[in-house]
Structure formats: structure tokens, C-alpha cells
Amino acid sequence: MAKNNSILSAAVCLLGLCSIPVSADGRGPGFEKSCRNLEKTVKSKNVKPLFSELVSAGTQLVVPDLDASCQNSTTVPVDICRLSLNVTTSATSDVLMEVWLPKDWSGRFMATGNGGIAGCVDYASLSYGASLGFATTGSNNGHSGQNGTRFLNNLEVIKDYSYRAITTSAAVGKDVTAKFYRKAHKKAYYLGCSTGGRQGFKMAQDFPEIFDGIVAGAPAFNFQGLMAWSGRFHTIISAVGPDGVPPPSSWAAIDAELLAQCDHLDGAVDGILEDPSMCNFRPEALICKPGDTTGANATCITGKQADTVRQFLSPLYGLNGTYLYPRLEPAPGFMPFIAGAYTAQQFLYTDHWYKYALYNDPNLDTSNLGPEQWDYAYKNDPTGVRTYSGDLSKLASRGAKVLHYHGLEDILISSASSNRYYDLVSRTMSMSSSELDNFYRYFRVSGMSHCRGGSGASVIGNNFQQDGSLDPTENVLMAMVKWVEEGVAPEAVIGSRVVDGKTDYKRIHCKYPLRNVLGFNGDPKNPEDWTCTL
Ligand SMILES: *[C@@H]1O[C@H](CO)[C@@H](O)[C@H](O)[C@H]1NC(C)=O
Ligand SMILES: *[C@@H]1O[C@H](CO)[C@@H](O)[C@H](O)[C@H]1NC(C)=O
Ligand SMILES: *[C@@H]1O[C@H](CO)[C@@H](O)[C@H](O)[C@H]1NC(C)=O
Ligand SMILES: *[C@@H]1O[C@H](CO)[C@@H](O)[C@H](O)[C@H]1NC(C)=O
Ligand SMILES: *[C@@H]1O[C@H](CO)[C@@H](O)[C@H](O)[C@H]1NC(C)=O
């Protein structure tokens, strides 16, 4: 738009006589006015704007009245127009969503997913998307707060959780974006991890027309299997009793033994397992010898405790031996995690899923769920939330892409579930990895726990990190942009180990089924000394 033209319209506007269109990239004097007018522009029967506001770069945004289980603050990284909407999805359900429209717009659209049993807008992802110039949307996934009570006798709320919050926020978000910038977006992306990873695969499997590029991490897919598996830890712990679980005094020794048995398998003794699927941890090696300290201060374990460890690290089988969910891949720290997450009471997500979504009985005793209940969950599978189709042919044929990653120190969702899904896709579509490479690539990220953190090079740009790189070789979101827009697909993902704001080292994370191996006499901190091999 010609400069003189905008100066003129700005002057007219000062007199209150106009509505200045925002220029195509979001810059220019129309930005503020368009933002103020946005509520009127996008209102419709099912779309109720709650407010729109300009938020300038550096603002510490604190969202009032959020459920206490939700993160309510984030630093807004760039100038945005922020729009909050209440969207009706059925007579008995609604989705709260926000669209963040950056002043400096890249022409791209992005939807973001949720975590856990959902109920919280992921403000950190909104910030991340906006900082990179995406018009970005996020929703509460159809209910407020990290619990499942709203599922009770309401299949519509489950449907929002299963997929409709994403399809809705994508449709409304794209519409808002086009109206605001007066120009449709160029490409649409999706970013999510955990439940967000499942939502991404739901889109890939059943709604492949919505996104051009999907980045999905640590997916909670095979959701019925996952909920059964998550609930089993509590059941095991209850059944073996307090002296059946290795005491805290033994946990460091368990980690040390696990590393002694498996750390060298990738050629590097560095505390990080590059391929935990190769680790057949043998806890019997820790059984107490005569004279060892036993009881509450033991660093060795009893035979019964070794059996419990084996149960923790075993796959889940259902009725008649049906394989439901793979084992937890061994990783240092698994004992404190399991003891912390599953000891006192049934895991909240499993508890609520069975009570409110599956059995509609708030008084259901979920402490001892077993094969009958798991089978019921699989058969019932409300609104197809299981998310486990291996057929990505529609996505492939329209040229959309999926980048899948999973942290190998993830104890909340086993990375083995991701390996298993990739193999399912390969079999279902009867395609080798080189064919799948055209639209679906999966990277195993060593040293990453659930979606972030961990002991290794886990900074990969899957969420905002102060010290993260934007280089597509080191940033999965920008890698996806390059794949979609330039046709250049990532061969590997380079992760960074960042300590106190400084990069300690970088490491290559290989494309499944390849695994990372350190060459003879190699330096684990030198990425060049590693090779992706079969
Ligand atoms: C935001 O969350 C924090 C921590 O839960 C809480 O202390 C604070 O009161 C909340 N602020 C608002 C405005 O709701
Ligand atoms: C959203 O709209 C629904 C249906 O009109 C209403 O029940 C709900 O309270 C609204 N939520 C908010 C936060 O305004
Ligand atoms: C679930 O969340 C709602 C909304 O925050 C809260 O009122 C309720 O007490 C929670 N229920 C349980 C069982 O956690
Ligand atoms: C365990 O060790 C602590 C500290 O050394 C000691 O106070 C305690 O009595 C010991 N407990 C048992 C059961 O040996
Ligand atoms: C398990 O076996 C029983 C008895 O043979 C059969 O009735 C049932 O349908 C089987 N269930 C599954 C899930 O295969």
C-alpha cells in the first residue's frame, strides 16, 4: 500500500471517520484500529468474541480467572492483536480460544495443542508462534482446568477433547486471520506435544485437509491403551505393598546399574541412552548379598522388589493376551518418577477418564482397573479418541507433512508407543521408510523427558526456549516450514544441551528406524563423531 495513502487515511481516521484496513503484513496504522474492530468483524451465531486488545512486546501477560490448574502468565514477545473467543460447538459444549495476530506477520497460520487431560490454553505456545510471525491460535480444548469432570454424561465435551476443539479453533482462527490481515494465510501449521501430539495425529489421520505441516511430539495416541497403562502403575504398587517397591535409598543404585548395563550400547558412556529399545535391563543384578544393608536404607533390592521393577518395565496385555501398550523404555530416574506419580492414589488422568468419560460414574473405584475395564474402554472408545489409525494416505496424497518426535527419557508416555505407531503406519500403508519419508518422519530424541527437559541435548525448537536456535536443522518447527514451503525435508534433528544459558554440546537425533552410534574413540560432545545407523 502506498505510503501517502496510509498517511492520508490515518489523518482521516483521527477524525473518527474511517476504518483503516490493516496492510497485508499487519504493519501500518491500521493495526490498532483493526484490532479494536475485530470483535465486530468476526462475531457470528456460534462465535462470541469476549475481547480484543493490543499487547505490546515485552508485556508480562497475566490472564485472570483461569482455573488454578492452568498456567496463567507468559511474556508476550512481539506486538500482537489478541482476540479471545467463546465458540459454541454444540448445544452442550463450547471452546474458549484465543488468536494472537502478530504485527509482523509471516503469512503463516498455526494452531497449537494442549497437555494432559487438557482444559488450559497453552500460552507459551501462543507466544512462541507469534514470536515467529505465525498468526497463532490455542484453545482450552473444550473444558476449563486440568481435570475430566466435564466429560460426565457429555459426549460433546469428549468430542471437543478428541478433535473438535482443534478443527474448530483452526477454522475460526483461519477466518479471523483472513479478516484481520485482509488476506488468506499461505500455509497452515500445527504444533503440539503429549495430548497435543495426539491431537496432531488425529488431524493427520482423520482431518488431513486442515494443516500443511504437523509437528507432533510424545503423542498420547493409542489413548485407551495409554490410560490403561498409566493406571497400571498404581495397581502394581498397591498390590505389592510398601516393602515390594524399591526404597528411595536404592534409586541411585538402580540408575547406576541401568547405565552400567545399557549406557555403552550406543558407543558412548555418557549417561544417555541413544536407543533404550536395545536395553534389556536386568534388575536381579541389584539383589542384596549377605551383609548388605537392608530395609529403609538399602541400596540393594529384594527379589520381590526386582519383580516389581520388571512389572514396571513390561508391556500391558489385555483380555486373552491382547497386546495393548508397549513397555516403559528404561531411563535413569524412572523409579522416583513412578513412585512420585503413581503411589498415593490412582493417576488423575486415568481416574477421571474411567469415571467421567467411560463409565459415567463419579464413584467408580479406579484403583484396580484390569482387563475387563480396559476391554470396555477399547470397545467404547468415545468419539474415536483412541487416535490409532495407521492410514495416512489422505494426508500423503494432498502433500501435507508430519514431523513426529519423542523424548527417549519420557516416563509419562513411553517412546516405544511412537516406534510402534510408525511401524503400524509402515505396515498399514505397505510402505518402506524411504516411501514414508515423503510425508512422515519420526525422530527419537535422546536425553529428552516428557516434551522438554531431560539429561541430554533436548532443545529442538518444539517449544519456546530462550536459547533455542531458529535454524531449521536445529528447530523442528522451522524444519517443518522448510519442508512444506521449500520441499527440503529434515534428515535429522540437531538438539542442543543448554546449561545456564550456554550450549554445552549439540547432538544429532536420528530418523527412525535409524539409531545413533558413536564412532570408535569418538567424542560424545562432537556431533560429527556420531552416525545414524540401522
Ligand atoms: C496466576 O496464577 C498464580 C499461580 O497459580 C496465582 O497465584 C495468581 O493469583 C494467578 N493470577 C491471576 C490474576 O489469576
Ligand atoms: C461460553 O458460552 C457458553 C454457552 O453460551 C456459556 O455457557 C459459557 O459460560 C461461556 N463461557 C465463557 C467463559 O464466557
Ligand atoms: C475439577 O475442576 C473443576 C474446575 O476447576 C473444579 O471445580 C473441581 O473441583 C475439580 N474436580 C476434581 C475432582 O478435581
Ligand atoms: C537410615 O539412615 C539414617 C541416616 O543415616 C538413620 O538415621 C536411620 O536410623 C536409618 N534407618 C534404618 C531403618 O536403618
Ligand atoms: C477372550 O476369550 C473369551 C473366551 O474364549 C471370548 O469369549 C472373548 O470374546 C475373548 N475376548 C477378546 C477381547 O478376545
Automatic annotation (TrEMBL):
Its EC number is 3.1.1.-. GO terms for biological process: xylan catabolic process. It catalyses: feruloyl-polysaccharide + H2O = ferulate + polysaccharide. Residues 1-26 form the signal peptide. Pfam families: Tannase. GO terms for molecular function: feruloyl esterase activity; metal ion binding. InterPro entries: AB_hydrolase_fold, Tannase/feruloyl_esterase. Keywords: Calcium, Carbohydrate metabolism, Disulfide bond, Hydrolase, Metal-binding, Polysaccharide degradation, Serine esterase, Signal, Xylan degradation. The keyword Calcium applies. Belongs to the tannase family. This is Carboxylic ester hydrolase. It comes from Cephalotrichum gorgonifer.
